[in-house]
Design brief:
277 residues; 11 helices
């Protein structure tokens, strides 16, 4: 009678150590699962995230803009108020789309649905799960941004040929917020903790040079605002849609690349610590 041997110890060692412990090369399985689950989602909730910046544009940019007049975006470039706030609202739209899926949805899957525990019981690694969820959130941010870009074009608010580059810039912004949002959410334990996200997002929206120039603030407040990510996204998109290019655009891109790297590293480590170690 031959003894039955199991290859489990070898597989476990390979699963727990080395590259295979983190990455199976299949984040699209997570994206596909999210798209299938989205079929049963409330489309009213999804569409609300698109219409919010549109309402801001119509009420403030088109309505109030007739009273405000032109706004200076650089020493040589002045644009109508609607063209000033439209790229900022585009960046906000990308942020909202990415943040929603990378925070609240991730929080429920992590703490109540136990979805990631099941995913990591398969061949998927924590980097597959993290990247898959971030890419899914990225799709939502891109969807909002494309819709808003069409609105901007209809109102003649894309003032430079480089406005088309705002779409890849929006992807970068959404990727950065989704990465960092998921990393932060992986440490959240209660719904009360999730309120902290809104406490950060609302001031960023109001004060990141979205509705008026940052120059109206004292210098020390300007430094605080510049430390937050939305300001970098607003300045990057505004430069592309208005043609007010500056050398500082490179710093905005590097800021978001750093956000993506930090978010992926912390999310991967956190998922591994929660479910594999």
């Amino acid at each position: 009678m031959t003894a039955v041997t199991s290859p489990a110890p070898t597989d476990v060692r390979a699963r727990r150590g080395g590259v295979r412990a983190l990455w199976a090369g299949n984040p699209w399985a997570v994206v596909q699962r999210g798209l299938i689950a989205a079929r049963s989602s409330s489309w009213v909730v999804i569409l609300s995230g698109f219409f919010e910046p549109v309402f801001y544009l119509l009420s403030l940019g088109i309505g109030l803009g007739a009273l405000v007049g032109d706004v200076q975006v650089s020493p040589d470039v002045s644009v109508p108020y609607a063209a000033y706030i439209a790229p900022a609202l585009l960046a906000v739209s990308a942020m909202n789309g990415a943040i929603y899926d990378s925070t609240w949805n991730v929080f429920f899957k992590l703490n109540y649905g136990k979805l990631y525990e099941g995913m990591l019981a398969t061949s998927l690694g924590p980097l597959d799960v993290a990247l898959g969820e971030i890419l899914y959130a990225l799709l939502r941010g891109l969807l909002y941004a494309c819709g808003f870009m069409i609105i901007m074009q209809a109102f003649g608010l894309n003032l430079a040929a480089t406005a088309i580059l705002a779409l890849p810039a929006v992807l970068l912004i959404a990727f950065g917020f989704a990465s960092l949002g998921m990393a932060v959410t992986s440490y959240m334990k209660t719904f009360q903790h999730m309120d902290w996200i809104n406490i950060v997002l609302l001031p960023m929206f109001l004060f990141s040079a979205t509705l008026y120039p940052i120059s109206i603030y004292p210098e020390w407040i300007q430094s605080v605002i510049m430390a937050f990510p939305l300001w970098h996204g607003v300045e990057l998109i505004r430069a592309l849609t208005t043609g007010a290019y500056t050398a500082g655009m490179a710093w905005h891109i590097l800021y978001y690349l750093a956000m993506i790297a930090v978010g992926l590293v912390f999310t991967t480590k956190r998922l591994r610590a929660l479910f594999l170690d």
